[in-house]
Amino acid sequence: METIIEPFRIKSVEPIRMTTAQERAELIREANFNLFALKSDDVIIDLLTDSGTGAMSAAQWAAVQRGDESYAGSPSFYRFEAAVKNLMPFRHVIPTHQGRAAEAILFSIFGGDGHVIPSNTHFDTTRGNIEASGAEAYDLVIADGNDPASTHPFKGNMDLQKLAAFLDSYGDAVPCVMLTITNNAGGGQPVSLENIQGVAELAKRYGKPFFIDGCRFAENAWFIKSRERGQADRSIPEIVRDCFSLADGMTMSAKKDAFGNIGGWLALNDDGLAERARAELIRTEGFPTYGGLAGRDLEALAQGLSEIVDEDYLRYRIRANTYLVERLDALGVPVVKPAGGHAVFIDARAWLSHIPPLSYPGQALAVALYEIGGIRSCEIGTAMFGRQPDGSEKPAAMDLVRLAMPRRTYTQSHTDYIVEVFEELAKTKDKLPRYKIVKEPNLLRHFTCQFAPI
Ligand SMILES: *Cc1c(COP(=O)(O)O)cnc(C)c1O
């Protein structure tokens, strides 16, 4: 069969509140043109993030009932720990309430003034945690990764030559090497197993611990299976285990590829580092067998980890994004190709070429998608990354708008509606206004800053 159907039936539904274009024009103005400030009831299709917004399965809800809320030594923790170790064979698994809490703990150890930390592309919370510790974050993705039109199969790869040069020139200032799979901020693009091996070898040669930000490990493994030579006949869990066997540890947001509404973890091999991490965990999150989560959450994640590596699910998941990319491409909308794992990215700088990067073309597009169709998307560009540590502002590498796809939540007819909104927008896009930022916080400004059209 050609049609790849959603490999699930719907058992429980949530109504969507419809709004009019007139209402939305008013609502977005009240939100100071920042989509994070909208109430989700005022959104028709919410593609702000795929984080924590997925639908849990019947088996996950059943597992929730089994949650044991003992403060210490809960069986729910041991089921969670076993599920993680089954895919990621690290010695220590430390649960946190989200991915960023795992990052904060990691960089309380590795961050600090004078340190520099390379990655393919640091996600915004990773960068925020590194910079808050006094260290600096560097992105060393391959050149294809910054070219929205390139069809390289692994656009999330680290540039190994740049990494070697970086390790040479910064020497002792580098406390560890990071790698994000898939590369969220760079378009949800995958990293090949060969590249992970290359990064691991370099890190080892220079004596640096190697950490994977593994938020979308299953989608990444699907891309490895379907695009990398010699991987087609291997199972997803085998590929996942190969990836993580190369690392000394990982951070994880379980709100992504663990089908959780909340959760995360930090995993490590080194006993001494794990001891320091647990001490920090107790201070900031909770006791090591719950770490900021309820027992019921740990159960949902343990079950979710067994569902996320299902090949029928992953085939449908990636196909759904490819379908949207194909439809938008046919309309002449510049989309990042090939489709990423969790999202479809629009090249707003190319499509709205009358808006210069420092006037936030991505924000202009995101606002227009809301006004026309009630779609909530997210700017990943100069509003998110343009602010420099010294307070100045420069264009980000790209000005993208991300349509993040919640897992198992929307159907193909929702996707067809999204395409129709773009069709409508294509008629007026050259008249969209530029934006300026009128109020912003010091760190991670895109979440709370206020915009105004010029
Ligand atoms: C979501 C995400 C994080 C942060 O995780 P939270 O659970 O939102 O705190 C870190 N890295 C990447 C790549 C992510 O996608």
Concise description?
The protein is an alpha/beta fold and 454 residues long.
Account of the 3D structure:
With 454 residues, the chain is of the alpha/beta class. The protein contains 16 helices and 14 strands. The strands form five sheets. It has a five-stranded mixed beta sheet, with helices on both faces. The chain has a three-stranded antiparallel beta sheet with strand order 9-12-11. Strand 5, helix 7 and strand 6 form a beta-alpha-beta unit. Helix 8 packs across helix 9, helix 12 runs parallel beside helix 16 and helix 14 crosses helix 16. The chain is globular. It starts with 20 loop residues before the first helix and ends with a strand. The structure holds pyridoxal-5'-phosphate. The site of pyridoxal-5'-phosphate (PLP) has 15 residues, from helix 4 and helix 5. Pyridoxal-5'-phosphate (PLP) binds next to helix 4 and helix 5.
Radius of gyration: 21 Å
Shape: globular
Mean of residue pLDDT values? 96
Overall helicity: 25-40%
Strand content: 5-15%
What's the end-to-end separation, in Å? Answer: 50 Å
| Strands, total number | 14
